[in-house]
Each structure stands twice: as C-alpha cells, then as structure tokens.
Amino acid sequence: MNTPTLAPLRPQVEAFLSSALPLWFKEGLDSAQGMFVEALSFDGQPLRNLPRRARVQARQLYALGLAHERGEFVGSAQNHAALMECIMKSVTCSYGAPGGGFYTLVSAEGQVLNSERVLYDQAFYLMALAWLYRVTCKASYRDAAERLWIFIETLRDPNSGGFQISDALKPGPRQQNPHMHLFEACLLCAELLGKVPWMARADELYTLLQIRFLDTATGPQPFLREFFTADWQPDPVSGDHLDPGHHYEWTWLLSRYRVLSGAAVPELPLLYTTARTWGTDRTGLAYDEILPQGRELRSTKRLWVQCEVLKGHLAYWRWNGDLEALERAQHVLQSILTHYLTPQGTWFDQLSRDCKNISKNSPSSTLYHLYVALNEALPVLAATP
Ligand SMILES: O=P(O)(O)OC[C@H]1O[C@@H](O)[C@@H](O)[C@@H](O)[C@@H]1O
C-alpha cells in the first residue's frame, strides 16, 4: 500500500482556520460581558441572547491557549495573554462559586441560571487554568487548578470509587463521560503544570476505565459503557447506550497517556476496533449514539464526533503505524471539510443519517473539538509528500 497523503487537504484546513479563529475569538466574544456567546449563526453573527454554559467559556479558553501555543495570536502574544486573563477574571466573577468550583449556566446578562456544579465542567476549567499557566507562567493559575481539584475531591465517592456527576446528586447515578474529561484534564495538567501530582490522578482515572467503564465480559467485543447506577451497575434504562465518539476520544487519550506514563494501554486497540466496527458508517463518519453490535439508536452525526474519529485514527496510526488508519484519517478529514465546515469559519454541527444539515446554528462548544483535531492533523498534513 502506498503511504496515504493528507497534504492536499492542508490549504483547505489552513484557509478554514484563518477565517474561523478571528471569527470565534472576536465575534464569538461578548466583550461587554467578558464572556463568549453560546453560538453563532451560520453567517457568523453572534447569538447574544442565548444562555451561556460554563463549559463553553472554559473550552474557548482552551482554544485560546492552543492558539497561543501555535502562534495564532489575537493581536500580539501579549494581547493574547492579556485577553485570556481578562476573560478568566470575568468568567470567574460570573460562574465561580464561593465554596469552589464553577456553576453550570449563566444568562447573557451574567445572572446565574443554574448553580449546580457538575464534574464535567470542572474538568474543562482545570484545562483552562492549565493553559493560563502555560501562557502567562503565573503561579496563581497553577494554585487555582489545585484549589479546583480540592473542590473536585468533594464529589468523590469514598465507598465505590469515582466521582459524583455533581454536587446536587449525592449519591446519584454515575457517568463515564465526565471521568473521561477529567482524565483528559489530568493529562493536560501533567503536561503543562507538572507530572506531580497530576499523573497519579490520571492513573486513578485510567483504573476506572479498566474496572468500571470498559465492559470486557458481556460479549466477544469489549465496549465502553456510559451510564451507571450509584453502585456502578449498568443503568437499567440506558446502560447499553454506546457513544462511538467517546470510544475514539479514549483511543486518543490513551495514546497520550501511554507517552506520559509508559503504560502499555492494551485497551487502545479494543476501543478503536469497537468504534470502527459498530459505530462508523460506510462513508467513515460515526454515529452520535448506538447500541451493542452496532444496532441503531441515534443515527445523526455531530461534528464533534467526527473530530474524535479523526483524532482516533491518527492516534491508532501513531500507535502501530497502520497505514489504513492514516487513510481513514484522510477520508474523515475530507468529509469534515466537505459536509460540516463553511467558508465563513462556522459549521453545520449535526447531520442526519444521509448527511443533510439538521442544526440551527454553530455552537461555540465545538471549536475546541475541531481545533484540537486539526492541530493533531496539521503536522501530518505538512509531513506527508
Ligand atoms: O454538546 P457539547 O457541549 O457541544 O459537547 C460535545 C461533546 O463533547 C464530548 O467531548 C463529549 O463529552 C460529549 O458527550 C459531548 O456531547
């Protein structure tokens, strides 16, 4: 097999980023409030009145941090860093809870609409703080990440392990997804803040993947479960729901964990194979949600899922050099460019089974997925002839 070449896609990726980044960092920012808006219209107008999720603010800070790393500054490097600090300050005023952690939802005027502190959001704030530390070198951000971890510890279940979904549901059902992002946060903190104590925290979350999330007993094909009861039994209603995007996302995370920890991560090919064989259609796009053996559940296809597919193929290719995985990466990147991205720098966020747009606007929360995936792909686009 010839080495698949992704290089022809590079100009399109670069053209997209050069429209998207200024758009999302300028039009996407409500500078009067110091907060990002929840979504843009397809032609790039900010939808200012929509309530704003905490995770959106943290994910946009992540994207700003990555942009700084890549030299794609808003203004100069100093302006870019000052912008990040300014946003973190106003976001902390609006979402920061006095007892630690960040609330879930704030109105366009800055009033708290939902004061629950969900584990999922805290993971993204750890990552935002790690990027702020990286960009500014100020110890206060590293300390803030540590204080946030102390809040996260209050969600811990000392009896059956793992963390509660939020401070409002104790004891409550458990979910795989926030733990995955907490694992992601620990890896980023290990990279940007230091391995101690973050790798030990990542190790614990990796163990949860092995003993709780990954079902290796039900059939010949292991798969990742999403929803559990308070004592970690599969949820009686949704315990069989599978998220192919999360299988690909873990594939990518395990490849990073392997580099940082030296662990063998035998789960990586298992997760990748399940996602490919059960959760991906003939065109190479993955479904939003499925049942075991690939039975249909929600055959829509969100953009974030395809970003994880791209990262998963690249991670698998890096893991064992499989050129077919590189070819699949090429195909899914082409499909992302063709079906999802607009020349204005916005996106159609969700397609029907037959690849028709069914989203009403471009949610800000997807930029992080897209930018991280393209950042993974760009060195490959540059390196292949
Ligand atoms: O729905 P938004 O907020 O855009 O998030 C998109 C998706 O991000 C992924 O990483 C997962 O955590 C999904 O469960 C989530 O739905």
Automatic annotation (TrEMBL):
Protein name according to UniProt: Mannose-6-phosphate isomerase
Top-level taxon in the UniProt lineage: Bacteria
The family this protein is said to belong to: Belongs to the N-acylglucosamine 2-epimerase family.
A Gene Ontology BP annotation from the UniProt entry: carbohydrate metabolic process
Enzyme Commission number(s): 5.3.1.8
Record's keyword annotation contains Isomerase: yes
Gene Ontology MF, one: mannose-6-phosphate isomerase activity
Organism: Deinococcus humi
Any matching Pfam family: GlcNAc_2-epim
